[in-house]
Amino acid sequence: MSEYVKDLMAEVKAKHPAQPEFHQAVQEVAESLDLVFERHPEYRSAKILERIIEPERAIIFRVPWVDDQGEIHVNIGYRIEMNSAIGPYKGGLRFHPSVNLGILKFLAFEQVFKNSLTSLPMGGGKGGSDFDPKGKSDLKIMRFCQAFMSELFRHIGPDTDVPAGDIGVGGREIGYLFGQYKKLRNEFTGVLTGKGLNWGGSLIRPEATGYGAVYFAAEMLATKNQTLDGKICLVSGSGNVAQYTVEKILDLGGKPVTLSDSNGYIYDEEGINREKLNFVMELKNVRRGRIKEYVDKYKNAVYTAFDPYLDHNPLWDHKAHCAFPSATQNEINWIDAQNLIKNGVYVVSEGANMPTTIEGVNIFLENKILYGPGKAANAGGVSVSGLEMSQNSMRLPWTREEVDNRLMLIMKNIHRTCVQMAERFGTPGNYVNGANIGGFLKVADAMIDQGVV
Ligand code: NDP
């Protein structure tokens, strides 16, 4: 780490204490950018990184709402408008009890680079609430979404800031949020993405993040003249990203063997086939049940509850070729990274945002495995969100094939950018440097063009 990055990190930690995930995200990017600053001191003197680190705007608001029993609840709402150098703020909303300012700043920061990599005109943002949707009735969810949007609507718009889904925010929540926005503004615009198909949504949007992460893995494998056919794959999570990751792994001939939720994980040595995936989709998306129920139906599979006192995640301790972390941040620590490598995993494609700790990432890089960091590997979701915005502006929907083809091309493009940037800056095969540098340059040049604002 250079003196510049050391000083920068000390300042970030002093200015923004108690935001460990944000510090982690900034450090990873800053270390990659050291390579750029050596050759291009103009970015340092223009204080580009110092400017990117500070959100253009961070909105925090009260979300009071009344549940179906008449009880009043108060949650915290956030929207981090991180960077608009290359387009309107764009990034998801997360509803989860762990949500706080630091977590949303890390996500918004990552989003800036990710969106730039897609080559679509989108700035970076992120938002959400500490509201926990788990186990709540549709009516409670609707009331909360309406209360949340009653403030958020002032700050967003189709040319200003276009939120989407993330953990805890899927099609149902986007529907309620959109309905309230439309009522308050009296306009029907593409202000949110992930909308329903018959009211402005895009085909392939629900599938896009998972499909994209698998396309990215396939691209990495292609550099070794290999395919996913016959590969055993560990997948974490069982929500939107995990489900469509499993679907695309099956399409490409791979064998997914794990899924999880926050309570535990299932291991199915025979493989999660299409019938079993349909069961999981119904379980999670309709009945909103727990992954544990998988083993009641498929007796050969094994369920293991997560032990909060264990120093590693046992899901990552099975023989496999590929891993697709698709649940949440820091779900792979250095012990997990070592276990993965020990068990034969040589492809990691991150569907989740920052699922690997810095120590874990270093183990992947030292072992020179094919490691696709989230900001590149999971960019498929926001890419199709960008395509949804295009379709909304044109008021013309595209076919499934057209969107899927564009998604595949974008993922190939992102992969090419990562490879080329890593080579150009002397670290061939390092997708972390490739993604960070590739994402940074476009935003940095736009910021220089636009002056100090
Ligand atoms: P969902 O809410 O649909 O699913 C999240 C899954 O992860 C659930 O199975 C959930 O379990 C599990 N999970 C959440 N928090 C934790 C936790 N603290 N510990 C263990 N498991 C947890 O979210 P998505 O599938 O949309 O998002 C998954 C990841 O992908 C996130 O990191 C998100 O930021 C990232 N991502 C999502 C995109 C999208 O388009 N949706 C785009 C790019 C990245 P439980 O039900 O028990 O909470």
Q: Can you walk through the features of this model?
A:
The protein is 49% helix and 14% strand. Strand 11, helix 12 and strand 12 form a beta-alpha-beta unit. The mean pLDDT is 98. The strands form three sheets. Strands 1-2-4-3-5 form a five-stranded mixed β-sheet, sandwiched between helices. It has a five-stranded parallel β-sheet with strand order 7-6-11-12-13, with helices on both faces. The protein has 453 residues and is an alpha/beta fold. The longest helix has 25 residues. Among the domains are: 138 residues, Rossmann fold (3-Layer(aba) Sandwich); 165 residues, Rossmann fold, CATH 3.40.50. It contains 17 helices and 13 strands. The chain starts with a helix and ends with a helix. The site of NADPH dihydro-nicotinamide-adenine-dinucleotide phosphate has 24 residues, from helix 9.
How would you sum up this structure in a few lines?
This protein is an alpha/beta fold and 453 residues long.
CATH H-level homologous superfamily name of one domain:
NAD(P)-binding Rossmann-like Domain
Distinct small molecules: NADPH dihydro-nicotinamide-adenine-dinucleotide phosphate
CATH architecture of one domain: 3-Layer(aba) Sandwich
Rg, Cα atoms, Å:
21 Å
CATH topology of one domain: Rossmann fold
Main sheet attributes: strand count, strand direction, barrel closure: 5 strands, mixed
Indicate the CATH class of one domain.
Alpha Beta
Q: Which overall shape is indicated by the principal axes computed on the Cα atoms?
A: globular
What's the end-to-end separation, in Å? Answer: 29 Å
